[in-house]
Amino acid sequence: MPSGLLARAVIAAGAGCPLLTGTYTPTQPSAPQEFAYQLRLREKPELAGAAYAAIDVCELALPKNALTAMIGKTSIPANLPARIDEIALLGDTGCRVTSWEVQDCANTSNWPLARISRNIAKSRSDVTIHLGDYFYRETGCPQTQQDFCAASPPAPSNLPAPGNAYGWIADALIPMQPLFDAAPMLLLRGNHESCTRGGIGFFLIFSPDLTTALQCAPTLVNGVVTVPTNDITPTWHTKWTVGATDATAHTFDLEVIDNAYGNDNVVDAFAATQRPSYVAAAKNVAKTKPDEAWLLTHRPIFGMVTTQFAGAGSVWSSADQTSASQGLLGNYNLLLASHIHVAQVTTIPGQPSQLVIGNSGTYLDAVTGYPKPTYGPLSNPDGTALSPLAAPYPAPSSVWTDVRFGYVIATPKAGSSSWLFDQRDQRGQSFAKCDLVQRTMSCK
Ligand SMILES: [Fe+2]
Ligand SMILES: [Fe+2]
After folding, report:
1. Do 25 and 75 contact (CB within 8 A), yes or no?
2. How far is the CA of 188 from the centre of ligand 2 (A)?
3. What's the chain's average pLDDT?
4. DSSP state string for 378-444
5. What CA–CA distances, in Å, run from 15 to 20, 39, 43, 156, 177?
6. Ligand in nearest proximity to the CA of 337
7. Ligand nearest, relative to CA of residue 92
8. What is the CATH number of the domain that holds 242?
9. 152: confidence class by pLDDT, cuts 50, 70, 90
């Protein structure tokens, strides 16, 4: 894509795609000119049927050097600034409705995604990064929980996956509306967007790629509607300049991994299947040699759950991803992920710090039980290797965990790879400040 940006519109099915209009400068310097293009219908999987019958999705790559852009009568962000000076970060945002746990979707303090979106939109962020897990309405609202989720109907039963248009509208399109107006978005795929969960909707609505509409398309296997499993979309990357002044400006590379699948507790054969994603990212950073690089994944490389979940097992999560990426993290300044429903920073000696932002709306994890482990990722609690396939990392030098709803505003400071990550609560109040210096983050 010439601009690197896609314009998208989700419309009532059959309504017809609107126009994309605006102004751009074809060559610099020159007077702005107008453009008007018809958005194109994004392909919908043929067998998606009733689950996604209510909506159509229209799209087009935005022209390079766009100054303004509108879809129909709605203004949309037209470009990424030449120098990125503020980034908003959030992850894990949908309202959980499952047979075992129902979140209070009707209460904006207990499911604060709409409030968080409004507060991010009020910031001056140049871009918003969502680290994945949008879709959480995986069952109909139980009769006994109507106060919490009466508006959540069950998914149509035509698919072997709970995702459906209504769930995506309720979990993402309505509460995140302020974000769509505010700034371009970089959107990761979470495990809730695997093909057996919300994947069809993710690839219809949010996947930032013109070619992925049918990634989770169901097929008939022996007469049974079947969706792909363990599919991985290719690693992609984007290179920006950050820093508003000549003194602070530097090149900045983001490597984006699809790690929707994999085992969190053991290293199994999937680690080898996933490894090429990390190899591709490492090769690209080695080739493009940015001043600074971050690795973006949904499942963290070095994230830990509460001891209340782990029991006698290891607190370190995403074992397949930790193993798949081992030895390939040398060129990153930061690892950025969500998946665990907390805000967390861990530092493993010799590795880039891991920031987890999984606290942006979905039911939070336990508030307590995050002491600094005496053992590292890929270890059992007694220090022995979790798997003969992977060498254990050393114990962390620091762990910081906070369990409240919120998001992060990141701003570069003078010098390459020096950032302030401001941890904000759902009302936009700062509750912690995390400094990244070179490859190490510390919070206070
Ligand atoms: Fe999640
Ligand atoms: Fe997740």
Report:
1. no
2. 11
3. 95
4. TB-TTSSBSBTTBPPPPPPSEEEEE-SSEEEEEEE-SSTTEEEEEEEETTS-EEEEEEEETTEEEE-
5. 15, 12, 15, 22, 20
6. 2
7. 1
8. 3.60.21.10
9. confident
Residue in this structure with the two tokens 């043929």, named with its chain if needed:
46
What distance in Å separates the CA atoms of residue 103 and residue 112, rounded to the nearest whole number?
11
Report the share of the chain in percent with pLDDT over 70: 99
Ligand 1 centroid from CA 133, angstroms: 5
Q: The pTM is what?
A: 0.98
Q: Is residue 112 located within the same domain as residue 186? A: yes
Determine the residue type at 405. F
Q: Which ligand is nearest to the CA of 264?
A: 2
pLDDT range class, residue 16, cuts 50, 70, 90: very high
Are 154 and 74 in a shared domain? no
Interval between CA 173 and ligand 1 midpoint (Å): 17
Q: In this structure, are 325 and 432 located in the same domain?
A: yes
DSSP category for residue 23: E
Q: Is the pLDDT of residue 29 over 80?
A: no
Q: Tokens representing 276?
A: 């090429």
CB 52 within 8 A of CB 22: no
Instruction: Looking at the CA of 135, name the nearest ligand.
Output: 1
> Which ligand does the CA of 297 lie closest to?
2
Q: Which amino acid is at 340?
A: I
Shared domain check, 46 and 186: no
| Boundary (domain end) residue, out of 57, 79, 101 | 79
Q: Is the peptide bond before 29 cis (omega within 30 degrees of 0)?
A: yes
* Ligand 2 midpoint to CA 338 (Å): 7
pLDDT tens readout for residues 183-200: 999 999 999 999 999 999
Residue 35 sits in which domain range?
1-79
pLDDT at 175: 98
Pair 122, 70 in one domain? no
